[in-house]
Automatic annotation (TrEMBL):
CDD domains: RT_nLTR_like (cd01650). This is Uncharacterized protein. Transmembrane segments: none annotated. Pfam families: RVT_1.
Length: 277
């Protein structure tokens, strides 16, 4: 994410427009075709007894649904990787590892687990056509690999300072993609002007809410070390996530964050307003 936003930020400084297409796999981890996955493992050099082990690991699983205490009959699991397991994310990464091979020249992709995005500098309709070509190639790739994109959740964000940005209507199959002015990317709210007001508003609201919860539920907790540990794990963790990306240069945004830290300090030390300089 740092690398992607750094690249887009450099383009923004040159007054260039960048279009980002956020893609969403429909039931990503549950849709992995076992036979295709095993074929890809073999192509990457996994053979013999190790490949047989993976085949046994994926096969023979069953599941059922229980509604109000009444269970359904057991049915075999014919797709998907076990979620919550150590191998699940690794196997999914192997499954989509060849996805970048279908991206057209000039367009770039970034992947983290099941979060995938395309982006490209847009100077003309030709650049939009090239990005659409990559999107169409991905649509073909998804059909070939028996995994679908949820077009309703795929979105387009144009990052630019231009008063009249170039607008290209991207589509996935027969579905047009929704244009947005901001989108949450790995927990960071990215806006069309690459400012961080919306993100800081979100994290300060969450941190304030959590700090208020601690103040209400732990009034009898007097141990300073425990209060500090609670603050670091439950409040400060929300404020510090991704600071390499959004660290504010605006004084008013810094004040918002510092105000929460001052409230937390008073709670940790059990002091009143004005007692800490």
């Amino acid at each position: 994410l740092v690398q992607v936003l750094h690249s887009i930020g450099q383009c923004l400084d040159k007054n260039l427009q960048s279009d980002i297409i956020y893609l969403d796999f429909a039931k990503a981890f549950d849709s992995v075709d076992h036979q295709i996955l095993l074929r890809k493992l073999k192509s990457y050099g996994v053979t013999g007894r190790l490949l047989d082990w993976f085949r046994d690991y994926l096969s023979g699983r069953t599941h059922r649904v229980v509604v109000e205490g009444v269970p359904s009959s057991w049915v075999p699991v014919i797709s998907g990787v076990p979620q919550g397991s150590i191998l699940g994310p690794i196997l999914f990464a192997v499954f989509i590892n060849d996805l970048p091979e279908v991206i057209s020249n000039g367009s770039s992709e970034a992947m983290y687990a099941d979060d995938t995005k395309l982006f490209r500098n847009i100077n003309s309709t030709t650049d939009g056509d090239c990005l659409q070509e990559s999107l169409s190639n991905l649509d073909t790739w998804s059909h070939d690999n028996n995994i679908k994109f949820n077009a309703l959740k795929c979105k387009v964000l144009s990052v630019t300072r231009k008063k009249y940005p170039a607008t290209y209507n991207y589509h996935l199959g027969s579905s047009s993609l929704l244009r947005v002015r901001k989108e949450k990317d790995l927990g960071i709210i990215v806006t069309d002007n690459l400012l961080w007001n919306s993100h800081i508003q979100m994290i300060t609201a969450k941190a304030n809410k959590m700090l208020g919860l601690l103040r209400r539920t732990c009034p009898l907790l007097t141990e300073t070390k425990i209060r500090r540990s609670l603050y670091l794990s439950l409040v400060k963790s929300k404020l510090c996530y991704g600071t390499e990306i959004w660290s504010p240069s605006n004084v008013s945004l810094k004040v918002k964050i510092e105000r929460i830290q001052r409230r937390a300090t008073r709670w940790i030390l059990r002091s009143r307003t004005g007692e800490i300089s």
